[in-house]
Amino acid sequence: MNSSSSKLFILSTSFLLSISSITSNSVLDNFLQCLPIHSNTSNPITNSIYVPNNSSFQYLYELRANNLRIISSSTISKPLAILTARHASHVQAAVICAKIHSIQLRIRSGGHDYEGLSYRSDIPFVILDLFNLRSIKINITSETAWVQAGATTGELYYKIAEKSKVHGFPSGVCTTLGIGGHFTGGGYGNMIPKYGLSIDNVIDACLIDVNGTIHNRKSMGEDVFWAIRGGGGTSFGVILSWKIKLVHVPRKVTVFKVQRTLDQGATDIAYSWQHIAPKLPKYLFIRLQPEPITIGNGNKTIRVSFIGQFLGRSRKLMNLMNEEFPELRLQQNDCIEMSWVESTLFWAGFTNGTSIDVLLNRVVENKVFFKTKSDYYKNVIPKQGLVMLWEMLMDIGNIFVQLNPHGGRMDEISETETAVHQRGGYLFKVQYTVYWSESDGGIGAAKRYVEMSRRLYGAMAQYASSDPREAFLNYRDLDIGCNESNDTDFGVAEVYGTKYFNNNFMRLARVKAMVDPENFFKNEQSIPPLPSSH
Ligand SMILES: Cc1cc2nc3c(=O)[nH]c(=O)nc-3n(C[C@H](O)[C@H](O)[C@H](O)COP(=O)(O)OP(=O)(O)OC[C@H]3O[C@@H](n4cnc5c(N)ncnc54)[C@H](O)[C@@H]3O)c2cc1C
Ligand SMILES: *[C@@H]1O[C@H](CO)[C@@H](O)[C@H](O)[C@H]1NC(C)=O
Ligand SMILES: *[C@@H]1O[C@H](CO)[C@@H](O)[C@H](O)[C@H]1NC(C)=O
Ligand SMILES: *[C@@H]1O[C@H](CO)[C@@H](O)[C@H](O)[C@H]1NC(C)=O
Ligand SMILES: *[C@@H]1O[C@H](CO)[C@@H](O)[C@H](O)[C@H]1NC(C)=O
Ligand SMILES: *[C@@H]1O[C@H](CO)[C@@H](O)[C@H](O)[C@H]1NC(C)=O
Ligand SMILES: *[C@@H]1O[C@H](CO)[C@@H](O)[C@H](O)[C@H]1NC(C)=O
Ligand SMILES: *[C@@H]1O[C@H](CO)[C@@H](O)[C@H](O)[C@H]1NC(C)=O
Ligand SMILES: *[C@@H]1O[C@H](CO)[C@@H](O)[C@H](O)[C@H]1NC(C)=O
Ligand SMILES: *[C@@H]1O[C@H](CO)[C@@H](O)[C@H](O)[C@H]1NC(C)=O
């Protein structure tokens, strides 16, 4: 390039830049001006619009952005605006106006997405935040409830307990998950052996489609209702609320957390656990959680926690454990009896005696930087595989791994019943979570730790499910499919789609083509519409 053309180049670049910033500002302005026209005048939408010059903008953005790795990254851009919907018509207006003005919407309920897809995008976007749509209406006579998307799992547990001591709901262990996002990925918790996933107990939903129309199960049709139960919400519309069927729980449940280090035979017990846990009676769930610890002399070891929940009293549990899992040597004084709602606190890591009022705390208090990857296992990991895993965990340091058993109710539900394919035939699913707190802008540490998580994932490939190597949508991982051959009809979407949904991917793409052929509702890992050539 000679000097005059390079000057021209610089000139034209800055000219283009200013044009594009004018354009994006006017696009935003047009979008913002469109909103009141399409929303209910008795519920003014203007009070729900936050643009970056608003003093609450940054606070609102971060409050429900739960992975510091995402919000600290200098390469990830912020939203043009945050719309905190307070009324269904605000959501309708957001969809209609975003479509008219070609603005990407990111829908956020609880903000727990592991990759932050509810609050980040590579293209200019607006966050549609549903956190204020959080009513929970429980009807004990019919044993049902309507729960809005912005309610948290903790609020749901609390409200159920307020009405009944013998009802509960099977969903996640963390008490700040947004019902909106959590259920669309399946929703998995410690009552899985008895009651399956959250979506297996969902009976209706309220959804706003690409035209801004509100639907219930009947008007959205069974295909869409099928797709949003496990296929991710993002691709099909905005879920306003779910109608759930409450489940029965006894007045007292028993929980325990037993820990064994390598010296105490952790490897053998963990090996047995893989055979036993997926076949336990439906009333009993035992999670396995290995993590590296440093012992007195500065040496490292692995401590494996066996965290259990029995829907019944401890004496019965003791008998059962002596029969089913004697190697664990559970003692009566390991067992803690409590009400079901108190058990949700135990699982969330609150200390004994904490008031159940903490369930009403709607945001995460101690956020960390983290990267999670996931696997499903159909075969047990041999002892040498466990030993390799332990060594890698001690090497990485800041990591925990969680093995959550399938079995029970999951074996009774067919893989086509909902969009969640992984039902019978799986022993357990695993999440590997590397976390850190170095705040060098997060960048250097993030790079290092993310690389470590990939190395571990690579090493476990020989034992995990394969062809496809499956993953759990609620443990979102943008690495999936990155370095794999994507020479398929759908490109990379077919790679991650098959990992998350296996044979259900094609049906999801067909449903997508029916209700959102222009692909308005999308993110980095959404379902693409099936090309018309199929
Ligand atoms: C600490 C922690 C513990 C967890 N424990 C569990 C667990 O025990 N079991 C389990 O299954 N999962 C668990 N998860 C994963 C969790 O279920 C998912 O991250 C889930 O997507 C969170 O939902 P959200 O509404 O909080 O997140 P968000 O980030 O708000 O949303 C997640 C995704 O769903 C989309 N979405 C959100 N709301 C809507 C809506 N109303 N309509 C349409 N699309 C929507 C978002 O755009 C995004 O793509 C855990 C996550 C964390 C961080
Ligand atoms: C507007 O909201 C009010 C109160 O929430 C409601 O009664 C009314 O039906 C709504 N109007 C429209 C057009 O949705
Ligand atoms: C910020 O936005 C809110 C909601 O739209 C509005 O009520 C408030 O006045 C705004 N504050 C500033 C400083 O602009
Ligand atoms: C903030 O931005 C909004 C929308 O772009 C604009 O109307 C308003 O005047 C701005 N306020 C300030 C104080 O800059
Ligand atoms: C609760 O459910 C019962 C049984 O279906 C029904 O008769 C009653 O009207 C419901 N109550 C409310 C407040 O909706
Ligand atoms: C601790 O490490 C030292 C040095 O590697 C080793 O000699 C010692 O046996 C270890 N102790 C235990 C309890 O493993
Ligand atoms: C938990 O707390 C209750 C009372 O708050 C007490 O009775 C019980 O012994 C405690 N259990 C444990 C294991 O500390
Ligand atoms: C993809 O490959 C590159 C180059 O080998 C590597 O650095 C990166 O970690 C890989 N990404 C994933 C997700 O495995
Ligand atoms: C598909 O794979 C090719 C070659 O590995 C890569 O260059 C391209 O970026 C991938 N496409 C997507 C969408 O990931
Ligand atoms: C949205 O509206 C268009 C145009 O009226 C229509 O063709 C399409 O079927 C509608 N989409 C849905 C999901 O109802």
UniProtKB/TrEMBL annotation:
Q: Where is the FAD-binding PCMH-type domain?
A: 75-249
Cofactor (UniProt): FAD
Q: Give the Gene Ontology MF terms in alphabetical order.
A: FAD binding; oxidoreductase activity
Q: Where is the signal peptide?
A: 1-24
The alphabetical list of record keywords is:
Cell wall, Disulfide bond, FAD, Flavoprotein, Glycoprotein, Nucleotide-binding, Oxidoreductase, Secreted, Signal
On whether NAD is a keyword of this UniProt record, the answer is no
State the PROSITE patterns in the record. FAD_PCMH
Q: Among its keywords, does the record have Nucleotide-binding? A: yes
Subcellular location per the Swiss-Prot or TrEMBL entry: Secreted, Cell wall
Gene3D superfamilies membership: 3.30.465.10, 3.40.462.20, Uridine Diphospho-n-acetylenolpyruvylglucosamine Reductase, domain 2
Q: Which family does it belong to?
A: Belongs to the oxygen-dependent FAD-linked oxidoreductase family.
> What is the protein's name according to its record?
FAD-binding PCMH-type domain-containing protein
